[in-house]
Amino acid sequence: MKTKLSSILFLMIFNSAYTQNCLEKINILPMYGGVKKCKEQLDSDKEFLKEMDKLFPNRQKAMQERIKSAWKYFYENDLDTAMKRFNQAWLLDPKSYEIYWGFGNIVAMKGNPKQAVKYFDDAKKLIPSNSDFYVSSALAYSQMFLNEKNSSFLKIAIKDLEAGLKLNPKNGKLYSMLSTSYFYLNNIKEAKKYLKEAEKLEPSSINPEFKKILDSK
Q1: Which of 41, 62, 78, 134 has the fewest CB atoms within 10 Å, i.e. is most exposed?
Q2: How many distinct structural domains can be found in the chain?
Q3: DSSP E strands: which ranges in the chain?
Q4: How far is CA 24 from the centre of its chain?
C-alpha cells in the first residue's frame, strides 16, 4: 500500500513539474513569446504541421490560408484568435512580411507601440508590398512620438509614409498622416500641401478638428 501511495505521490509531483514547464497562453504572444516550448506544445506543433501538410500542396499555401484567417479575426477585433493564426502562419513559413505586420498591429492595439515597431521593422526586411503596411508602421512611430516627444520617431513615420506613397500614390490615409506629421514638426506649408491631397483622394481620412486648426494657420 505504501509503495502504491509513493508511486501516486511521485506521479503527482512529476505531473505538477511538467505542467509548470508548459507556460500557458504563449500562442497569444508573437512567435509564441520566444520561449522554449514543452514537449506537449512541441507535439501539438507537429500534429498541426502534419495536418496542414495533408490539407495543402505546400506549407506556403497553408501559411497564406492562416494569414487570411488571421486578418479576418483581426478585423472582427478578436485579437487573441488573430494572434493564434499569425503564430500558426509563422510556424508554417516565417518568411511573409504580413505575419510580422499582424504581430505589430496586434501589439500596437494592445498599447505597446515600442514593441510593435520591432515587428514592423522585421516586416520591412521582407519588403512589404502593401501601402497600408506603412500606415500601420507610421502610426506606431507617431504614437511613440506622442508618448516621448522625440521628433526622431516622427521623422521615421514620415519616411514610412513616403515609402507607402511609392507603392500607392492614391492612398489618402498616407497624405492625411503626412499632413499631421508635418504639422507636429511645425512645417505648416507641407502640412497644408498634404492635407489638400488627402482631401482630393479620401476626405474621410481627415480629422475635422485637425483641418479646422490647420486652416486657421
Answers
A1: 78
A2: 2
A3: none
A4: 21
Nearest residue to 115 via CA among 140, 146, 89: 140
Domain encompassing residue 179: 129-217
Residues 113 and 142 in one domain: no
**The model's pTM:** 0.87
Claim to verify: residue 135 and residue 148 sit in the same structural domain: yes
Type of residue at 21: N
The length of the chain is 217
84 in the same domain as 60: yes
- Number of C-beta neighbours around residue 212 at 10 A: 9
N-terminal to C-terminal alpha carbon distance within the chain: 88
Q: Residue 29 and residue 41: Cα distance in Å, rounded?
A: 14
Cell 506606431 sits on residue: 140
Residue 190 CB coordination number (10 Å): 15
Residue 138: inside a domain: yes
CA 200 vs CA 177, 194, 197: distances in Å? 14, 10, 5
Cell of 72: 479576418
* Residue 197 belongs to a domain: yes
Cα 119 from Cα 107, distance rounded (Å)? 9
- The per-residue pLDDT for range 145-187, each reduced to its tens digit, is 999 999 999 999 999 999 999 999 999 999 999 999 999 999 9
Boundary of a domain, candidates 86, 109, 126: 126
Place of cell 521582407: 126
